[in-house]
Design goal:
Strand order of the largest sheet: 2-1-3-4
Radius of gyration: 20 Å
Structural class: alpha/beta
Largest sheet: 4 strands, parallel
Order of helices and strands: EHHHEHEHEHEHHEHEHEH
Shape: globular
Distance between the termini: 14 Å
Number of helices: 11
Helix content: 40-55%
Length: 333
């Protein structure tokens, strides 16, 4: 794919954006992170006064301690898994762009925590960058994730006199390069471990109410599952869909992952492989909730073999997908 860039390459930059992570696995750091994350109206849209009382008075004091222990159990020597993997993705994409003759700057930012989107944009603009490609690392669009990034970019632009040009990828679950990367990761796992009775795709959940209000996330998730079944030559009975990480008493997208795992052994599915296509990098929700917590649920319910298939992370096919997305966004500049 060729591009027609009208500015020197040093005036262009790519910013990968993921959800975020605490700076360290301590209670104060977790509480700071959760406070920012759960105060975003895109994530929790309850009346602010009531919600802040609940958040500060109940959730942060109690949930902070529990979540800190979970982070400590998956924390790597180099730091938070999500941050380490995102750094690797950033470096690999920069190298791929350079090898392709487009040595644009590549950085990463986090919607919550550090480095913030505003600080990364500020730093790049100080170096003379005028045009940005922002790549949210969410294959499936949701207002709770991708739109939250757009909100922060909008807030940043409101503070600027001289506006930069910014293009942002909305979603990419439907693209052939993503489909090929996802199917390839499953085939690679099968080549080493064999095929299980079923493949479960566990997506991060959102409240059902958000879907009724127009969020296309559930449709994107089910399209991802249908496409993967087709690409792997599996039936709809062999590829299951569930939603994890629900919070509170409100109805979230169903079936819930943990409840489904309790039922599957009784339905004859004793060997299960689990993939989390909504996550571009392994993190707390995959390394602890899926790989450990939900494994115990399945085995306790009578399952015999449970395997988590890791996220695409910084695999070469994933980086090539990112490169393709960036090149598409650069067209016409």
């Amino acid at each position: 794919m060729t591009t027609n860039l009208t500015l020197p390459l040093q005036r262009y930059a790519v910013v990968l954006v993921n959800l975020g992570t605490p700076d360290e696995p301590t209670v104060p750091a977790i509480q700071r992170y959760l406070k920012q994350f759960l105060s975003d109206k895109r994530v929790v849209d309850y009346p602010a006064i009531l919600w802040q009382c609940i958040l500060r008075g109940i959730i942060l004091p109690f949930r902070g301690r529990r979540v800190a222990k979970l982070y400590q159990s998956i924390w790597w020597e180099q730091g938070s898994p999500l941050r380490v993997i995102t750094e690797r993705q950033t470096k690999a994409l920069g190298n791929a762009m350079l090898m392709g003759g487009l040595p644009v700057q590549v950085r990463y930012a986090m919607t919550y925590g550090n480095p913030s989107i505003a600080s990364v944009l500020d730093g790049l603009r100080a170096q003379g960058v005028e045009r940005f490609v922002v790549l949210p690392l969410y294959p499936q669009y949701s207002a709770t994730t991708t739109a939250a990034i757009s909100d922060q970019i909008g807030s940043y632009l409101q503070q600027q006199r001289d506006l930069p040009e910014i293009r942002m990828q909305k979603h990419y679950h439907h693209l052939l390069a993503y489909r090929s990367a996802l199917a390839g990761s499953v085939r690679a796992h099968w080549a080493k471990q064999g095929q299980a009775d079923a493949l479960l795709l566990s997506f991060h959940g959102i409240p059902e109410r958000f879907v009724r209000l127009g969020d296309p996330y559930e449709r994107h998730c089910r399209e991802t599952a249908a496409n993967l079944a087709t690409d792997l030559g599996l039936t709809s009975e062999q590829v299951l869909v569930s939603f994890q990480s629900r919070v509170g008493k409100e109805q979230w997208l169903q079936p819930y992952t943990d409840q489904l795992l309790e039922k599957l052994p009784g339905q004859g599915i004793k060997k299960l492989q689990v993939l989390c296509p909504a996550f571009s990098a392994d993190c707390l929700e995959t390394l602890e909730e899926i790989a450990v917590e939900n494994c115990e649920v399945f085995l306790h319910a009578g399952g015999e073999d449970y395997q988590y298939i890791k996220a695409l992370n910084d695999s070469p096919c994933h980086i090539q997908l990112f490169r393709q997305l960036v090149l598409q966004q650069l067209q016409g500049w």
